[in-house]
Each structure stands twice: as structure tokens, then as C-alpha cells.
Amino acid sequence: MTKKTFNTIIKTSTRKDIILLILTEKPNVAKSFAAALNIPGNNSGYYDSPDITITNCRGHLYELFMPEDYDPKYKEWSFDNLPIIPSLYSYKKIPDAASQANLVTRLLQLHKNDKIVIATDADREGEVIARIVMSEAGIKDTSNCWRFWISATLTKDSIKKALNEMKPWKEYEGLAEKGLARQHADWLVGMNFSPYITLLSGGKATFPVGRVQTALLAAVAQRNTEVKNFVATPYYECVANLSDKDGNKATALLVNPETGKTSFNILNHHINSAHIFSLSNRSITIESTIERKKASAPHLLNLTDLSIIAAKEYDLSASQVEKLAEKLYDEYKCLSYPRTPSTVMGENEEDVKTFKQKFDMLKNDFEISKYCDESLIDISNKNLFDDKKLEGHYALIPFAKLPSNALENERKIFNIVAEYFFMSCMPPCIYDEKKLSIHNGEFIYKATIKTIVEPGWKAAYKNNDKQDQDNEIKTFDEKNCNLDSTEILKKLTTPKKEFTGESLMKFMKNPTSEENQGKLVGLGTEATRGAIIQKLQDHQYMVKEKKNFYVTSKGFFLLKQLFKNELAKKIAGIGQTTEWEKKLETSPKEFETEMQDFVISCMKIRPEVQNFEKDSIGACPLCGRKVFESKLNFFCSGYKEKPECNFSIWKEICSAKISSSDAMLLLSGKATGKKKMKSKSGKIFSAKLKLNKDSGKVEFIFDKKRG
Predict the structure, then answer these.
(1) Residue 88 burial (CB < 10 Å; 0-12/13-18/19+)?
(2) Domain limits for position 152
(3) Are 148 and 43 members of one domain?
(4) Are residues 39 and 160 in the same domain?
(5) Most buried by CB count within 10 Å: which residue of 75, 427, 440, 449?
(6) Same structural domain for residues 535 and 554?
(7) 462, 492, 522 — which closes off a domain?
(8) How far apart (Å, rounded) are the C-alpha atoms in residues 414 and 334?
(9) Local structure of 389: helix, strand or coil
(10) Measured between alpha carbons, how far is 698 from 694 in angstroms, rounded to an integer?
(11) What stretches in the chain show pLDDT beneath 70?
């Protein structure tokens, strides 16, 4: 359907008193629209003029019914009441947003015959919010509704431009179907499996279950188990040390004739013979092949990539990164739309112009910009501008200079985005890859040597991966070189590393599974991955110790209960979860039906009940009873007993986080490490913490030099 301009839509309005109603997702977005269109506010949740009214949702205004909202019998969890399958999904107002929901409903009903602009966030979640609000307002005819869709920061010019490029709202029905199907499926899993597992566990603790979060929990548990049970096994390598006429050094590894690999499981005759032979015969012949290769500059970032880098460099959680990026976008307006899955911009002159404008604005503020090649800011550069790789919003780019009052973590996030913004328009790194086959008598050694021809973006890249450091790029003249010596090295296999914030986000982006060998669909979305990790911690299924994630006894118990049900354990499988994600993308209705059938079948199976007992983290210093962990604190189990004991250690003391390992140290009479804290007056200070066992109070330990 042909696009209509903003002015054309206004002229074809059916009413004279109100011509246009604009519905945004958040108050600050409504404010940006009002500023761009010069519409005053009246401090009543909307902006009004003779021609245009603007209102906002404040995020989600409605939530799905709880089971007990459909029928009071569901309030008490019972196997007999499962499964719970609504014939029609109903919504209720979120209590804190009820007044705004009433206002939005009133305005939509008043102007249902006018032109309505849907300007909620340009993603699946924003689409769902708008569809629910319109449905709850009783608006069934959406033929007069238009979709405002923008990936740029909301400036006056970008708003006006996007208003002139709107499409009829019905063209986004496919996106809405996917969003609602996901929402319904997640409700089905949560509202059925949570009571199901809780009942199987004796009902003393609640066990929330989620379609994606439980699969991720299982992946972390598997990694924890693999690392814990790993037994190192020895292997051997025979290393040939080479040097060329200029003194450049290189190493090559003996090829195992049985496997074709460069390692040996046992110290056998072949590896010993090669080593002994080299001591008496240093004569070698070398066969080489050279291939010129190109390593393109890094892409622009999406939210997941930004979270991965921020976790690696600053140990910031994905949920922290999302909030920081949202503030840079919403409040400071110095970052493009953050919840983007794209790593490119659009293949059009407007996006090229935008990139160039931001480049010119910021280049004098970043030393790294001197490595850029401005001729690469061109529509022909597919590393930057590619419609085939564009998904809804274009990639993260800086949109304005960072305000001087920005906080430290906000500055860190902005600088990461800016650095990759500049690196994306740097020339590629050109290098020669030499593959050497070194013959020493009957024995063959192999080596790969990389030689830089043109450093390109690598000259500016300060955060080289370990892989780049291990494969050092250097010059080596293989035509004039000698075999100096060989040596046999005994090595031990190493386990996989525990998941960190960085590697867990990488895993969610590109998951792997033993039962599925091909490429899998990512877990969650750009907007939900950080929240999923945080939920697992909030439910006390997973804890973060230093940088590593570990599944708790409660998390392992949940998985154990799931695996008693041969069908239900699918929900803990990465492969199955990603198959469902594929089905959601291709056929949302089939996906929802399949999830409903899955839940019904699972609820028919009733394994034996096994009571869950929480692990104590230590003994109460006041009464000696067990201390357990809750969401907010570490508490004495005697709070309900006689005599009553109210001992607790809060999980946040003067803005410092207290982990379970910190609490264990305190209960054992030891001090924590030094923590950075903030007083009530806002003063920043550092101190260790120690428990006074007589009073049960946590006390500060300052450096002696400070008294």
C-alpha cells in the first residue's frame, strides 16, 4: 500500500475538533513528540492542541489474568486443577498503571473515528503493548490506524521524517501475532509448570519455571557439572623450534600419522623417534602454501554485543547494560534505539548521511578516529549498510555528544558504542597465512604463520581476543631457516570454563546443543536476555561468584524434578527451546497450539513427590539455628519459632552487594573483602565488613591508617 504523508493523513481526517491521536509507549517519548510538533502539555497524562492529541502508555498498562482471575479455585495449587488452559486470554490493568490505562482508554474511545498513530516502541514488545491497549479500549476497526516506526533517536527532525513515512497498521499484524503467541506460550508454561514442580517438591518453596529461562539454567548446570567432574588427562606434543636467517623464531608441531593431528595420547615410539632423530639430523625441507586473507573491520554493535563487551571489560551485567543504554537513548538522546538486533544500518542515502553527520560531530573527541577511512562511509560498503541484514532497527550508533554530567558507567557504555562506530569504517586487515609442512627425514611437522601486509583496523584495536594473541602475526622466512631443536611437552587437558556474564550472553546469542549439531536460533531477544539472566538470580536458581555463574541447590533440584518427567524435561533442552523459537518465527499459531498440547501432555504425568530442603549457609550467631538465603536477606530459621530470633544480614549494605559467599564469611567469624559503599549523606567510602557475634550486627572495618 502506498505510504501517506503526515500532512495527507491530517487532511483526510473525519473530524474537525481532534484530527490526530498519537499513542506512545513511554511518557518521555510523548514529550519528545510534543516538543517536535509544538504541542503544549496539561500535566494530565497527555498533550493537547486543536489538531493533535498525544498520550502514552507508561510501558505495559495491562497484564494477563492470573489463573485465579479466571476461577477462584486456582488460587490454591493442586494437581487436580492442572492443566490451566484459558479458552480466551484476558487482561487486567496493572494496579500502578490503572489511572493511565483509564485515561488512554478514554482518549482512544473518544477519538476512535479519527486518525490514530501507533508510536509504541518499534519492536515486537511495543507492538504487543499497543494491540492489547487498543483491544481493551474496544477498538476493533483499525483501518484508520497508522504505524510510526523509527530506529533513530527521537529528535525533532527524525520524528517529523518518520511521521511522513508511516504505513497502515495492518501491515504489522504478523509481528503482533508472534508477540502475542510468545506471551501466551510463556504464560502457559509458567502458570502450569510452576505449581506442578512446586507441588512435586512438597510445596515448602516456590519453583517458578520459564520456557527460555529453564533451558538456560540447564545449560549453566551442565557446565557446572562438567567442570566439577572433569578429570584432566595427559597428552604429548613434539615441538620443533625454528629460526630464519634474520633470527625470527617459529614453532611447528609433529603430526601424528595415526590421527593426522598434532597431539599424542601416549608417549609412543613415533614421538620419541622424531625427537631423537632431530638431535642428529637437523636437515629439513619445507613445503609451503601462502593465502592472502582479509579480516574485515568489526560490525556496529547490537544490544547483545554491547552487553558481551561490557561484561568482559567492566563486569557489568546484561540488565545493567540495558538500563544504561536506555538512559543514554531516552534521557540524554545521545544513543540510537538500544534494543536492536541489527549490526548494520539501512542501505539508503539517509542512513549514510546520518552516519557521516555523527562521524563529523564526534571525530575530534576520539583519537581512534584517525585510523578511519572516510571513503568507506558509502552505500556500497556492505559491512556498514546492508538491508538484507537489517532487522527492524539499525545498529547502535552515537547520536550526540555525551553530556558532561553523565555517570561513570554511562560513559563506559557510550565509549564502547563510539569505539565500534569508528572501527566499523576502518579498512580491513590484510595478512598472508603461510601453512608450512616441515620434513625432517620421515617425520612431518606443521606450522601456520600469519604475516600482516596492511594492519588496517587492527592498528587501532586495543581489545584483541586471546586467539589473536596466541596466533601471533609476524614475519618469517621459511626458505632460509634452520631446525634448532625439538622438545617433547607433556600437557594436560583443561575443562571448559564456567559461564561468565560475557560467555553466557554469547551462548544465548549462538547456543549449542549436543542433540542438535546445526546452528540454533538464539535464546531470548535483545530486549529480554539480560532480564532472563536476572530472573534466574532473583529466583535463587543461580548465583554469581566473582565473574562466574553457578547453579544453586534449588536450581539443581528444579532440574531434577523436571527430568523425572520424560516429556517435561524437553523444556530444559536448548535444542528443543530453539526449535520452538523457529516455529514461533515461521508459524506463531502452530507454535501456540504445539505449546498448549505440550503442557496438557506434561501435566498428565505425576512423578513421586520429593520434599525440597533449603541448604543452610551457616549457623545463627545469636541462637545457633540454621541461616538461609532469601531474595532480600540471609535470615535465621528461628523467626517463626519459640523463642523467636530475628537475626538477618541484608543483601545490600550502604549500596554494597552482599553475596552468599560474603554471608558465609561473616557467619564463620571472618571479614569480607573491601567494599565500595555510600553513606546516607551520599559520601563514598571503602571498608571491610565483619559480624559482631554478640550483637548480631554487621560492623565496618576501616584501614588502620584512617583510624
Answers:
(1) exposed
(2) 6-165
(3) yes
(4) yes
(5) 449
(6) yes
(7) 492
(8) 8
(9) helix
(10) 11
(11) 1-19, 42-43, 152-153, 392, 462-473, 514-519, 704-707
Name the grid cell of 298.
568489526
Q: Is residue 307 located within the same domain as residue 360? A: yes
Per-residue pLDDT of 380-432, as tens digits, reads: 999 999 988 888 689 999 999 999 999 999 999 999 999 999 999 999 999 99
Taking 3-state DSSP, the helix, strand and coil percentages for the chain, each rounded to the nearest 5, stand at 40, 20, 40
**Cα 26 to Cα 57: distance, rounded to the nearest angstrom:** 6
HSE of 573 in the Cβ direction (CA atoms, 13 Å)? 13
Pairing of strands 20-24, 52-56: parallel
Domain match, 650 and 591 both = no
pTM, to two decimals: 0.84
DSSP 8-state class, residue 671: P
What 8-state DSSP symbol labels residue 571? G
pLDDT in tens, 437-473: 999 999 999 999 998 899 999 998 754 443 344 445 6
Q: Is the dihedral of CA 444, 448, 451, 454 positive or negative?
A: positive
Give strand pairing partners of 473: 450
Residue 506: half-sphere exposure toward Cβ, Cα within 13 Å: 11
Strands laid side by side in the 429-440 sheet? 285-295, 429-440, 443-454, 249-254, 234-244, 481-492
Report the distance separating Cα 235 and Cα 217, nearest Å.
33
Amino acid identity, position 268: N
Q: C-alpha grid cell for residue 154?
A: 527521537
Q: Which amino acid is at 5?
A: T
Neighbours of 58 (CB within 10 A): 21
Specify burial of residue 159 (Cβ count, 10 A radius: 0-12, 13-18, 19+). buried
- Looking at residue 403, the DSSP 8-state letter turns out to be P
CB atoms within 10 A of CB 131: 21
Of residues 268, 386, 383, 406, the one with CA closest to residue 335: 406
Q: Which residue type is seen at 362?
A: L
Phi, psi of 648, deg, nearest 5: -160, 155
Residue 203 is placed in which grid cell? Answer: 510445596
Separation CA 625–CA 637 (nearest Å): 6
CA separation for the pair 701, 460 (Å, rounded): 44
**For residue 398, what is the DSSP state?**
B
- Helices 529-538, 318-330: axis angle to 10 degrees equals 130
The backbone torsions φ and ψ at residue 319, rounded to the nearest 5 degrees and listed phi first, read: -70, -35
Q: H or E element: which one contains 190?
A: helix 173-200
Which amino acid, 612? F
* Residue 527 grid cell: 530486549
Q: Name the grid cell of 642.
A: 519459640
Q: What is the dihedral of CA 258, 260, 266, 270, to 10 degrees?
A: 70
180 belongs to a structural domain: no
Q: Which amino acid appears at position 655 of this protein?
A: S
In a domain, 183, yes or no: no
Going from the C-alpha of 386 to that of each of 352, 425, 517, the distances in angstroms are 11, 14, 29
Measured CA to CA, the distance from residue 304 to residue 477 in angstroms comes to 42
Residues 138, 10 share a domain? yes
